[in-house]
Amino acid sequence: MQLQGSPGLVLGWNSDADNTYHGLVLGWNTDIDNPDHVYVMLVSPATMAVVDALATAALTVVIPPFLIILVTVLVLASLGKSLGLRQKYVQFLLKVFEDGNRILVKKFGRQRLKKEFTRSGEEENDEDDEEEEQVTNDVICRDKLVLRPTIDKDDTEGQHMQREFELGDCLDYIRTGMEAIVDDEVTKRFSAEELTSWNFLTRTNCQYEFISVRLTIFWVVGFILRYFFLLPLRILILLIGMVVMVTCTYVVGCLPESKTKRKLNSSVSVFCFDFLSGALSLVCTYHNQENVPRRGICVANHTTPIDVLVLACDNTYDMVGQRHGGFLGIFQRALSRASAHIWFERSESKDRFAVARRLKEHVEDPDKLPILIFPEGTCINNTSVMQFKKGTFEVGGIIYPVAIKYDPRFGDAFWNSSKESMISYIYMMMTSWAIVCDVWYLPPMTRRESESSIDFANRVKAEIARQGGLVDLVWDGGLKRSAPKIEWKHQYQQLFSKRLKVLNVNSEKKVEKVE
Amino acid sequence: MGSKSSMMLRDEEIKEIQAETGFSSGQIFCLYKRFMNLNDYNCQGSGILLTREKFNVIPELVVNPLGERIIDAFFKESKSDCVNFREFVRVLAHFRPIQPGCNNKLNSKEEKLRLIFNIYDLNNDGYISPEELQTILHMMTGESLSDKQKKNIVKRTFQEADKDNDQRISFEEFSCAITRDADKELSVNFLKQKSSSPSDDS
């Protein structure tokens, strides 16, 4: 046989009729001029036949059903929302939870569980308890001094009533310090919200699954359902969704800038995000849709990167954020092709003027989409809203506040980026029951004449907290990672000093006590 | 969060703590959860003992002018640089409201005042010296008062409180000098909790 090619590996098909061997030839050609020095490995005809058979089997038996499943999944994921499949699933889950609750209540008695979770209308009859049963998640009730990073204005009202120092003046500080050690406002915002009843996930409670046979069965069935049925399905949808998104945004990006492109971008974007939300069984209820942002800046409370998905399923936004690598980076690059998102390098984001300038340019362009910003700057656990960074509120323009509240019974969406990696977080999300949330679009707000941007930020924050039923906190979300500042102590030291009647440095006379 | 702070307390331990402190088992469970949360709050290698830096993750405590001394109260109880759960609960038990007809060993008026006295008494010699009072005053006022002003306040306070004129304040003199209601001021409003185990009826 003739083997041609450069020195090295050769692959050929020997079809020489005179030769005994027909088939694949794999060899190493050491000397191109001297074909006799070729060492060949022959693939026997038998092996070839086996390979042939396998290929045929794959093509005829395995692939078509796989394709059918694939198409069904695609169709379901796209239409799942309009068919109301996910909503029905969520309703069904609620019934199961209630069932489970009834079992727990029977086992432990009503005192065990929070009143809300028992059927409404059933009044409790606590004959053995005369005082009111405060069954709550709180450990203590704080009705006196609570220290914060900024002093409320009404704390200074006692300023003009100065008194002499007493040994007992420290009692307030000590008591509030001890209260803070037992339960403080801030540290509990960076871990998953505690549930008051069980939702059949071991990650929320470790004791319940072995309490009764029925509960155990519920839990096992749920486990199998989540890990062996829902999880593979969701991963599939995620992968397909990513491919779909990258393709669609690429196609849209090829068009020249025009109104058509923007319209296409909107519909494509909503479709892609809707599809991806199937990967998490996202069930979202949008309220007050007359306030949907069309331009300006949209601000929302931040719990997880899924917030973006939640909001983008209903409306199109241009996003702002730091450039990420890896998983999120793929999305960022894909989205940027189709629309003018604002991604910053890490170094650039520290330059506040550059950031503000880019935001301002975007806001003032009437053709551009509304910008989506999370002023907290970090993920909080959806029980409270923490300090809004004032940068967004200095740009001007109309602010559209949005409140997002997740229902933790179906799966806690909070991501603590310092404790969990992105991959393990997504894994947790995909093995939860579903992600159920409510979104409220609030009426637009603008900064008043005499208002500082910090006050404006606090006003917007208060509105969002009120609508979402969240606690409004003054503390900075950055406390998740960084230590509290010692300087915050100074204002309390100053306040205390002002209240003290001090002797004039020059005089030695005793000043009369003022009662 | 729930599954991480699984009950590592045995029932006997809970009963012991109940007897010692007067907390209900539900409250002990809550305090235990809090103890464990402070333990692995953003820390990689968590033990079952609290160190000073673990207390300092609480922003309210860092903002508190007397924060350092409050934390010291725990380490005084443990006599080392780590605090275990029993010591943690014991110190907090001082702040239970005084309940008539109940276990009031740790939260009697005298015990409450003694905890405050120990916060003033920096060197643990059983007396408050003028220097110690000056240090505490400095913690509470910072740079807002001059040294001279602080000295004057210390002098005046000693004149009033130090009855036997030995230039130091003993615990008895301290108790007399506190005019405010220690029980009301030094009580934390612990709420009733659900029982921690099915067999417990609280």
Automatic annotation (TrEMBL), chain A:
**Renumbered residue ranges of the record's region Disordered:** 116-136
Task: Identify the Pfam families for this entry.
Answer: Acyltransferase
Could you list the residue ranges forming a coiled coil in this record? none
InterPro entries this protein is in? LPCAT1-like (IPR045252), Plipid/glycerol_acylTrfase (IPR002123)
Membrane-crossing ranges are: 53-79, 211-229, 235-255, 425-443
What does the UniProt entry say about where the protein is found? Answer: Membrane
Q: Give GO MF terms, alphabetically.
A: glycerol-3-phosphate O-acyltransferase activity
A Gene Ontology BP annotation from the UniProt entry: triglyceride biosynthetic process
Feature: compositional bias, Acidic residues: 123-135
Q: Which GO terms describe its cellular component?
A: endoplasmic reticulum; membrane
- Phospholipid/glycerol acyltransferase domain mapped to chain residues: 296-407
- Keywords (A to Z) from UniProt: Acyltransferase, Lipid biosynthesis, Lipid metabolism, Membrane, Phospholipid biosynthesis, Phospholipid metabolism, Transferase, Transmembrane, Transmembrane helix
Q: Give the signal peptide as a residue range, or say none if absent.
A: none
The biological pathway it contributes to is: Phospholipid metabolism; Lipid metabolism
Q: Which family does it belong to?
A: Belongs to the 1-acyl-sn-glycerol-3-phosphate acyltransferase family.
Protein's UniProt name: Phospholipid/glycerol acyltransferase domain-containing protein
Q: Which organism does this sequence originate in?
A: Petrolisthes manimaculis
Automatic annotation (TrEMBL), chain B:
Annotated organism of origin: Petrolisthes manimaculis
Enumerate the UniProt keywords alphabetically. Calcium, Cell membrane, Cytoplasm, Lipoprotein, Membrane, Metal-binding, Myristate, Nucleus, Phosphoprotein, Protein transport, Repeat, Transport
State a single Pfam family of this protein: EF-hand_7
Query: Where mainly located?
Result: membrane
Query: Residues of the signal sequence?
Result: none
Q: Known SUPFAM superfamilies for this protein?
A: EF-hand
Any one GO CC term of the record: cytoplasm
**GO:BP terms for this protein?**
protein transport
Q: Name one GO molecular function term.
A: calcium ion binding
Domain EF-hand stretches? 108-143, 149-184
What Gene3D superfamilies does this protein's entry cite? EF-hand
InterPro entries, per this entry? Calcineurin_B_homologous, EF-hand-dom_pair, EF_Hand_1_Ca_BS, EF_hand_dom
Give the family from UniProt. Belongs to the calcineurin regulatory subunit family. CHP subfamily.
Q: What is this protein called?
A: EF-hand domain-containing protein
Q: Where in the cell is it found?
A: Cell membrane; Cytoplasm; Nucleus
Please indicate if the UniProt record lists Cytoplasm as a keyword.
yes
